[in-house]
């Protein structure tokens, strides 16, 4: 589309208005650049916290302390921001589409499902996709939430006869002042203190979830790389900048000791490091120096 044609399309919105250029300037001026900067800054901070928490959780599984996390790779931060952005986009698209489908008609059972349960269902699908091991727990929680949602009106509106009428009264309450996604979004737009609460909550909850994902990722890890130096085997656990985090490794027992080292990643033709790939299907065994052994 040419710039002239684009101009005509925009101008058509202000047909009959002599101050067209002033209107355009006003629209540009009304755009809140500060909010955009805050969103970018917030996304960067959140991406860093998520990347840091994931790596911390991953290393926690092996018993590695925070001192080994010297820096967070910018690629990991970008990946974290991308994952968060993609997840939010999925939540928005999934909820809007499902909500639109369920909005047809006035069946109180469907309306309660849409207003109360649909947000939990969409978030549950997302968490299950991110970590399949959580599917059983998430399914159980969703089932409990669903049953609770349909039982609450019975106890809440004892004076109203008929279960359908109770649901209609609950829908009326939800529309006016209930805890629904619509009312939450309205509060975010209108109430500054609630906006601050959402920011603090996401900066607390999402890194905690990321930490748990990192721990579970390490727990499910089966493919590793190790090398031999002076007849001793060392397993490469992770990479920290230009260094490897390694631990003594017993190849026969698939066992590492919690004696971690950081070595520089370097090799040459005269004294090359030969890296060997190993698949440990039953999981890596970790020997704890004080409390014995764990899987």
UniProtKB/TrEMBL annotation:
In terms of domain of life, where is this protein from? Bacteria
Q: Which UniProt keywords apply?
A: Membrane, Transmembrane, Transmembrane helix
Task: Give me the segments passing through the membrane.
Answer: 33-54, 74-95, 116-131, 137-155, 194-215
**Which protein are we looking at?**
Uncharacterized protein
Organism, as annotated: Priestia megaterium
């Amino acid at each position: 589309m040419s710039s002239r044609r684009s101009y005509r399309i925009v101008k058509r919105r202000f047909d009959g208005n002599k101050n067209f250029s002033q209107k355009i300037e006003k629209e540009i001026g009304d755009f809140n650049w500060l909010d955009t900067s805050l969103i970018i800054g917030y996304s960067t901070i959140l991406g860093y916290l998520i990347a840091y928490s994931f790596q911390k959780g991953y290393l926690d599984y092996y018993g590695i302390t925070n001192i080994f996390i010297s820096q967070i790779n910018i690629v990991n931060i970008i990946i974290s921001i991308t994952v968060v952005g993609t997840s939010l986009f999925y939540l928005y698209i999934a909820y809007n589409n499902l909500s639109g489908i369920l909005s047809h008609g006035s069946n109180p059972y469907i309306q309660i499902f849409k207003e109360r349960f649909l947000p939990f269902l969409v978030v549950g699908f997302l968490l299950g996709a991110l970590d399949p091991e959580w599917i059983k727990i998430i399914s159980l929680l969703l089932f409990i939430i669903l049953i609770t949602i349909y039982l609450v009106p019975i106890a809440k509106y004892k004076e109203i006869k008929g279960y359908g009428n109770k649901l209609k009264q609950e829908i009326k309450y939800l529309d006016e002042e209930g805890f629904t996604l619509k009312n939450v979004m309205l509060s975010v737009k209108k109430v500054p203190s609630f906006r601050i609460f959402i920011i603090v909550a996401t900066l607390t909850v999402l890194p905690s979830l990321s930490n748990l994902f990192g721990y579970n990722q390490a727990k499910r890890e089966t493919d590793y790389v190790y090398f031999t130096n002076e007849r001793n085997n060392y397993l490469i656990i992770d990479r920290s900048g230009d260094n490897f985090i390694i631990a003594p490794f017993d190849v026969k027992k698939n066992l590492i000791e919690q004696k971690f080292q950081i070595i520089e990643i370097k090799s040459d033709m005269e004294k090359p490091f030969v890296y060997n790939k190993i698949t440990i299907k039953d999981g890596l065994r970790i020997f704890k120096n004080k409390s014995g052994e764990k899987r």
